[in-house]
Design brief:
The chain is of the alpha+beta class and 304 residues long. It is 21% helix and 44% strand. The protein has four helices and 16 strands. The strands form three sheets. It has an eight-stranded antiparallel barrel.
């Protein structure tokens, strides 16, 4: 019986020593955290709890007084985020850089993404967008997008004032060419030229297009996201002859944050186009036909 009690005593003593063989983080507020220290970078300390599948926790060095590894190695930190790195061993004291304090590539990516998500959470959820390249193709477009679900989803409402921009440029080019011909040729030649090359006429007037986009965002790296989702538009496109109809597309692209206020979006979409029923009695159009459609967009956004 005595032998059994002695064996139990030593087993409990060994188990107690193993449970205490953990790294420790001593905070400046007096709290002591038992954990597994993963990495010590220039400004932060990362560790995991001793439980299974524990999440990675990152602290600023300003919050930490010192760290103690289970081997007995101790690192002390100053208030200005620069480690003094005093390494104390059982019988000697020296200064060295432990391999454990070096971050791996994956740990660095995880830390930077976590830091960015904390900053992004404080940014506004509204984005006012302007589509500058579309001005050449006869659209003055403004949109408002509201980001939801921790900025992983966006609902966007665009509004476009359409005009025949390409027709306007062609008309001016035709008038300039006609004026040049009148200056350098006789009146008979002018009549022949005008009959062979009638002047280009643009579609006069304006139209309106609106719709809705639903975008789903996936983080690629800090400040850069991939997005995809459905895009619906209905209205009149003056550049395409003033036709009215519905378009549906699946779009995808890249969303980039530029500082605290600006964003930019580059996207491409494919889908179909269907004419309005008011064209049913016109022989040149088939309102039952669905036509392929595609779009390319670039948006300059400002957070509101």
């Amino acid at each position: 019986m005595k032998l059994t009690s002695h064996i139990c005593f030593f087993v409990l003593l060994f188990a107690s020593w193993k449970s205490n063989a953990q790294d420790k983080v001593f905070l400046r507020d007096g709290k002591v955290i038992s954990c597994k220290i993963v990495a010590i970078s220039e400004k932060t300390i990362s560790y995991r709890d001793t439980t299974v599948n524990a999440t990675l926790v990152t602290l600023s060095k300003n919050e930490v007084l010192l760290t103690e590894y289970q081997s007995g190695t101790i690192y002390m930190f100053s208030k200005v985020e620069q480690p003094l790195e005093f390494k104390i061993e059982s019988n000697s004291t020296n200064f060295s850089n432990s391999p454990e304090v070096n971050e791996t590539r994956e740990q660095r990516k995880e830390r930077r993404m976590k830091e960015w998500k904390e900053k992004e959470a404080l940014l506004p959820n509204g984005i006012l967008g302007f589509y500058i390249p579309e001005l050449v193709f006869g659209r003055l477009t403004v949109s408002y997008e509201r980001l939801l679900a921790n900025k992983s989803m966006g609902i966007k409402i665009p509004f476009s004032l359409t005009y025949d921009g390409l027709g306007f440029l062609a008309e001016n080019s035709s008038n300039t060419s006609s004026s040049s011909t009148n200056t350098n040729t006789s009146s008979n030649n002018n009549n022949n030229n005008n009959s062979n090359n009638p002047p280009v006429k643009r579609n006069v007037g304006t139209g309106f297009i609106t719709g809705i986009d639903v975008n789903y965002y996936h983080d690629l790296k800090p400040e850069l996201k991939y997005y995809f989702g459905p895009r619906i538009r209905y209205g009149t496109d003056m550049t395409l002859g003033g036709i009215e109809g519905l378009t549906f597309q699946i779009q995808n692209g890249i969303f980039r944050s530029r500082g605290k206020k600006m964003t930019s979006t580059l996207g491409f979409g494919v889908g179909f186009f269907k004419l309005s029923a008011k064209y049913a009695n016109r022989g040149t159009f088939d309102t039952k036909q669905v036509y392929p459609w595609a779009s390319f967009t670039w948006r300059l956004g400002f957070r509101l």
